[in-house]
Amino acid sequence: GDKVKEKDRTRLKKAKESFAHPELGKPGRIYRYTDENGKVIFCVCRFRLQNGKKTFSQCKSDGLSWSTKGTRLVLYNLPEIKDASHVAFVDIAEDEKVPQIQG
Which of 2, 24, 33, 66 is the most core-located residue (most Cβ within 10 A)? Predict the structure, then answer.
C-alpha cells in the first residue's frame, strides 16, 4: 500500500544521497538490477549532463565501485519477469533504454 511506497521512496532517496560518481556527481535516477531472489547485484545510474543530455554509468550495488567487471549481469526487473504468468514482449524505450514489461 501507501506505507510500502513511502518506505521505498525514503530508501531510494537515501541511496541516491550515498551514490556519487567521481566525474558525473549524483545520479538523477538509480535502476537496481536484482537476482531472482531480489538481492541487488548492480545498479545503472542516470545522470543529466550540463548540456541537458542524459548519460548512464554502471556500478556495484554499494555505489562505490563504478564498474561491473566480474559481476553477474541480469535482466532489469528479473523477479517480476520470473514470477509473471506470461510476458507478451519486452519493450525497450529508445530514449530511456530501460525495459518495461508489456502484456
Answer: 33
